[in-house]
Amino acid sequence: MNATVTPRYRQVKELIIRRISSGELQPRDRVPSENELVDATGVSRMTANRALRELNDEGYVERIAGVGTFVADFKAASHVLEVRNIAAEIERRGHTHSAIVLFSAQAPGDAAAAAALNIAADAPLSCVRIVHQESGLPIQLEDRYVVPDFAPDFLRQDFRITTPSAYLSSVSPLQEAEHVVRAQMPDAFTKKNLEMSDQEPCLVVTRRTWAHGNPVSFARLYHPGSRFELSGHYTPPGTKTSERHPATGETEND
Amino acid sequence: MNATVTPRYRQVKELIIRRISSGELQPRDRVPSENELVDATGVSRMTANRALRELNDEGYVERIAGVGTFVADFKAASHVLEVRNIAAEIERRGHTHSAIVLFSAQAPGDAAAAAALNIAADAPLSCVRIVHQESGLPIQLEDRYVVPDFAPDFLRQDFRITTPSAYLSSVSPLQEAEHVVRAQMPDAFTKKNLEMSDQEPCLVVTRRTWAHGNPVSFARLYHPGSRFELSGHYTPPGTKTSERHPATGETEND
DNA sequence: TAGTGGTCTAGACCACATA
DNA sequence: ATGTGGTCTAGACCACTAT
User: Fold this and answer.
1) Strand extents, DSSP E, B166-249
2) Does residue A207 sit in helix, strand or coil?
């Protein structure tokens, strides 16, 4: 471990990130300008510029020449995390999102959830099971487990309005995400709740998110194969994007 | 269109990218150092530094303090494109890759392929159909269409040794990629070639890649649901990665 | 006019590699 | 000893936006 001093541009970056994570700086809020950072921290303007430029590249803030630097709003923030919100996706397609809460309680999760969250098998978790609908048609069955200490008020949310994913992002910026995508046949419960036809497979996304270096949430997301797809579009930095594809499903990056 | 002059750091970046794309600079080759760029282009060292630093951040090159800057090798290059090679994935898991070429010819593709590649429905395409096996077990049926002009020698490759994806990357660095992931039941042909059981769904990845701003390749990749999954792990820049997950399938990054 | 970000320079010091 | 990348500074000019 070579514990050389942290570079000053990095110190400035972490200063800003802390203010965003703590909620002191909200989306759309103005971030100190380069000159203000020069005065406040004593670094040169080039160093302040590098800090803000990198935060911009990483999606934390948005910079407008001649105007200022601002905390990126939710849309941009979720881009950073590469974790999208099903409700936002549905609305982006011009449809209406609704949700039915099937289950909501503090209880031990199943073995896979406990293992994924690195806790004892009988430890209590905040568990919810929700069916998300796109214009009335079920499109996702969400089976989610959250470490209670991370979000003590989690179960008090109205998940018909706020999705678990959106609430968790608001509690703390997620630092890491892992997901696995599979195709499998639904069990009877899933098939019924997603109103799936016979011989229709599920697209299953298993997602785990981290905050402060620890896994804090585990989710299984079941989607009817005939009504859902994941799409992604990648362009290397510094390339002009070609014409956009007609997105027919949730965009799933990373 | 405000056609202000291109910033000098960007000109230097494009200079290096051109040398890499043209093949003049091969993976592992040494890239001109900051001081050499200062002498060669007349920019200041800070400007040369920014150009090389951004190329490093974008995955084009790898920098080692005290040693030099080098063109990123294939592993890193595919990370840039977020398009992985099935053979490399299989070998990474310690298994052996083999391939069976079912079909290989110049012929018109189907309507979807022609539309995806933006060409006339009856225009000839280089078409191949390949079954990829992991230690003898089929794991991917690849249905690929390539624009002939892009890779004239495409059909002359031995796809038992070089995968289409690997060959296409060697012809020209891919600049853009788009993919869609679906779950669907296999048709009889697919089911047979992938040795799938009854009631087993397919994970289908449809992928389109661009070069020089034009779509050049379209592929449908069918995988048996019971033997394949896509996984991804995302960490925001500047975060220490937590313990790694046991990858059981091809990593699929966008 | 004053403030913002965008870029650029010509120096500088440092830790580290190679020889 | 030389070269490399990593960082930092104190200025500078520019285009743009707001007042």
Assistant:
1) 176-184, 202-211, 214-224, 230-234
2) strand
Q: Other C-beta atoms within 10 Å of A143: how many? A: 21
The structure's pTM equals 0.75
Which strand C bases fall within 7 angstroms of a protein CB?
Answer: 3-12, 15-18
Q: With contacts defined as CB-CB under 8 Å, which chain B residues touch A181? A: 181, 203, 229-231, 252
Residue B106's SS3 state is strand
Distance C10 C1' – B148 CA (angstroms): 51
Instruction: Provide the CATH number for the domain formed by B82-224 in this structure.
Output: 3.40.1410.10
Q: At what angle do helices A164-171 and A74-81 cross, to 10 degrees?
A: 90
Q: How far, in Å, CA of A228 to CA of A134, rounded?
A: 11
Q: Read off the pLDDT of residues A58-88 as tens digits, 9 standing for 90 and up.
A: 888 999 999 999 998 755 555 544 556 788 8
The nucleotide whose C1' lies nearest the CA of A7 is D7
CB B65 within 8 A of CB B59: no
Are the folds of B8-72 and B82-224 the same? no
**Side-by-side strand order, sheet with B30-31:** B30-31, B68-71, B61-64
Tell me how far apart the alpha carbons of residues A234 and B172 are, in angstroms, rounded to a whole number. 17
Q: Which residues of A touch B254 (CB under 8 A)?
A: 82, 232-234, 252-254
How many of the other CB atoms lie within 10 Å of CB of A157? 20
Q: Domain boundaries in chain B?
A: 8-72, 82-224
Q: Which two tokens stand for residue B51?
A: 């150009």
Residue numbers of chain B with a pLDDT score lower than 70? 1-4, 74-84, 173-175, 233-254
CATH number for the region B8-72 comes to: 1.10.10.10
Residue A123's closest CA among A131, A115, A134, A114? A114
The residues facing B137 across adjacent strands are: B134
Cα A18–A20–A25 angle (5° rounding)? 125
Closest CB to A232: pick one of B80, B179, B203. Answer: B179
Asked whether strand C has any atom less than 7 Å from the CB of B52, the reply is no
